[in-house]
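Q: What would this complex look like in 3D?
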Amino acid sequence: MFTTYDPQYASNMVEGVDTAFMVIFGISFFFLIGITAVMIWFIIRYRRNKHPKAIQVKDNPALEITWTVIPTILVMIMFYYGYIAFSPMRDVPSDARVVKTVAKMWSWEFEYPGNKLSSELVLPINEPVVLEMVSLDVVHSLFISAFRVKEDVVPGVTSYMWFIPERLGNYEILCTEYCGLNHSFMESVARIVTREQFDTWLDSIPAATNLDEGLVIMRNNACTGCHSMDGTKLVGPSFQGIFGRTETVLIDGTPTQVTVDSAYLYRSITDPDYEVAEGYNRGLMKSYKGVIQDKDIQTIVQFLMTLQKE
Amino acid sequence: MTTTIPYKSYLEPHGKYRGLLDWLTSTDHKRIGLMYMYAIGVFFMIGVLLGLLMRIELFSPGETIMGPQTYNGIFTVHGVIMIFMVVIPGLSAVFGNLFMPIMIGAKDVAFPKLNLFSWYIFICGAILAVLSQFTGNGPPDTGWTFYAPYSTQTGTNVIMAVTAAFVLGFSSILTGLNFIVTIHRMRAPGMTWFKMPLFPWALYSTAWIQLLATPIVGITLLMLIAERLFKIGFFDPALGGDPILFQHLFWIYSHPAVYVMILPAMGVITEIIPTFCQRKVFGYKAIALSSIAIAGVGYLVWGHHMFTSGMSFTARWVFSFLTFVVAVPSAIKVFSWVATMYKGSIALKTPFLYSVAFIFLFMIGGLTGLSLGSLATDVHVHDTAYVVAHFHYIIFGGMGFAFFAALHYWFPKMYGKMYNQRIADIAWLINFIGFNILYFPQFVLGLQGMPRRYFDYLPQFETGEILSTIGGFILFAGLIMMITNLINGYRKGEKALDNPWGGSTLEWTIPSPPPMENFDTPPVVSNEPYDYE
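A: Here is my prediction, written as structure tokens for the whole assembly.
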């Protein structure tokens, strides 16, 4: 029962934000119920067949001043709680780990020291982190609900947010500034691990300078935001072991079996709605014909052919 | 003039043309009010149907009835229609035109031809908005906020939608100008400022916002068009612009615009409650002045839409502080309304029921707004379903229910006929229940972390989304019932008395429906308003 309750907040920001919520909701609830109850009581008590003649009550300046001053004090208290919980959010500790965050339609990318790139935000528990965020196209907003943090990612400027993750586990990262077609699919995950797990994970990531040219092109065009390399199902099918596998696709709604070859991969990049892999929707992916140069598409196809099954 | 003019209702033909042309060329303020109402009624139903389509799409996760591009277009069009064509003009253009001149004892507004011209501008803007859906490369998909640089880059029909909003703005500016001059210059003899009823007071505050704030969004939308057409870099950083500048300029207008929506609604409620309580309104001066205070301070709080946008910390806390300040005058009004019921003689008629629902829903909308004005809590709920719930409680639960209250209150005066009050009460109950089931779950969804403008959602949000969709259908049924009942009332309702509710303001002293120029002899005012002694 009580032992299963985990008292630790997911991040250092939760307590302040939730306290401010409790103060505001507590006062609000009191007034909502109180005023509604008084109103209903007046309506019942003074309904016309019980109270046929209204009594003209004079204005009461003392009462009016009271109900001006009390709400003023209460909203100032609310302002104060919001202020004290918010001001640490803009005050980054000097020892915070810097993770460069790149937002683009419609994926997140996290860059660790040593030019290591990841589509997931992996962080060691109990260590402060600051996300230095840039956008490559339009305004996005990084939101981790469990951590009570959110900040817009605006093209042309570097914005930031910081926090200390305080509980192990996976937490959703969502985009909360509308950014077009796949706004609702622009998601990632914050994976909070122990320091040892984090170090092992970081070591296993190849530096981006050693990346295959095809993968670099794919990252630059946000392909990896929707297609994983490790079998995870994102917005589109995973690329793990894609070459040579048999896919069921819909051509004009008719299910058809195809074996993935270089021609299929090329078609899927230039005309994605022609053959739609079963379980995915038409219109989710735009055509990259003319967006990515033809020779670069060939490089991507070459790279995809090298991806192993596991 | 000593001869008595024979009574002729404003609804009867009176110009040199007959039929529809008689209406389209009439500068009578009441007819213009009705023409706004019919147009807005049509746009409202289109907006409702689009909203219902979104609710059906969100009934289950994944694609239900439409793809993401269609969904993004639909929430944009829903927003543009509802904001620019329904709630901003709504109460002031319809009931302001219909009753403000009568309530201050005038024959018409100060500039009747300009008034008719404003209606034509409104219709032109509306036609452009509707055309933007069917021409160009698909409906605009930016959201009604047109945030740059997405709006300067997307291939959809943004320019026409923005032009529509620009044109609609002029209608709003001219109506505001007309009302300011009318209220300053045309009050009946003896009607000093503090003897003026409170609906005109609310319209007066609103008119100043329309006049002063609307040009800012006009110029902003022009800048957006210039950027799209000529690549002038105002907002897109790739061209040397600043996306945050767009957000500032947009909200400098669009936050005060919220008060353009809600102040007349408060005015309507302030008229209805004294009538059905047969009591002088409590705190007349406080209500009048709090309208002005809201209009004034309301200019200075736009930054609370941008707490997570990357503004400086100082800007963030100053805007938060001012936002809390503007909450107080609204609270004063709520207290005054409830105090007006004290020792009254309360008749539970349909307009009063809608007013009580208004107070309850507006309180929820206002109180939930406090967590959006507070910095720390806004970080969590900003741009989530919580915001969607909050502003629907304010705009629909507030302005919408006040509109329905006004409609049921003044209907007998407008048409000289009475609707079926029992059916109206039942429709009220269905609307109230449906509204809460539709929007309340969205507060919870937002607190759980469900972002807004999402075509698809994570499985943990499904229960709330299903509940919300069910509420949408209940509300839709209630709206249909309400509208059908009013149309039936118009077609075959009983003849209404001149003053069916026992109202004390000037519109109840003249026949139902009112004659062409309202008053045979100009009224002279000596009492304070809401004098039931």
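A: To summarize the key features: The beta strands of chain B are 417-418, 494-495. The two ends of chain B are 32 Å apart (CA to CA).
Q: Very helpful, thank you.
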